[in-house]
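Q: I'm writing up a methods section and want to include an example of the input and output format. Could you take the sequence below and give the corresponding predicted structure tokens, formatted cleanly so I can copy it straight into the document?
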Amino acid sequence: MKAHWYALGCGLIIASAIAGEYFVPTPTPTVPANATPTPPTPPTPPADANPLTPAVTVVALAPVMPAEVPAEVPAETTISALSFDPGDKRCPDFESAFADYGLPVITFSYIAWKESRCTPSALNSTLNRDKSSDIGLLQINSTWKTVTSKICGTTWGDMSVLYAVDCNLRVAKYLYENGGLRHWRL
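A: Here is the clean output for your methods example:
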């Protein structure tokens, strides 16, 4: 049987090719330095056990599923958001707007600080290799012309509407719902 070995802390687990089963070697008890070591009593093998097979304990592990988040806990307090502490790198003046648009408040407050330093009129027209621009509070990229025109109800190519916080947040919500945070470099 082909097995893969994984070291976890001080123990050793042999993960078998059999789906859902892991073979864990029986641990050897430690003996204090000043004690007289007594050999451990080996477990009694079952009557049908193969004497050539080493003694192992078979443990069936259930797949690890994400924990259910109770309804009263805001979505932004899930594991990924809890591990994120922006400290003072936030835009508190816009946090109620992020909540109104259904965006994770802490995360988008940090994004706004990082991208525009909380400035809705921010424009980056020099850092992108493709010569595109990043516009507004959350620095929406100018390549999102079609999305911006549909969401903000403007003519195609009019990216100046992204300076308006309302339009910027509506496009950000669309991007967040269609690709998550990958649209911003955190």
